[in-house]
Prior knowledge:
Radius of gyration: 22 Å
Strand order of the largest sheet: 1-3-2
Strand content: 5-15%
Region (Disordered): 1-31
Helix content: 25-40%
Amino acid sequence: MSISIAPKSAKPSAEIPAGEKSPRRHQPPAVVDLNQPDIRLYIRDVLYFLRISKPTLYAGIKAGSLPKPDGHDRKRPFWLTQTIKAANGGVK
Length: 92
């Protein structure tokens, strides 16, 4: 008696038709009103409000042009809404 083992067939890859964009991996940050005090904003939120990249954020913190985080939620840094509002020049 012989047993033959067939190789697994490769799963078909989901190809994106020409002209269509691939789905986004990250969701945009939740809408937060900067006029509400004491709401924690995490890195993704700060990048959105200040319209900067993560390297620009950390370079600005190191240079002193952007505020340091107000605290850490475990290992995640956060800023309060009033801190980001002041850093953004009171806009929004």
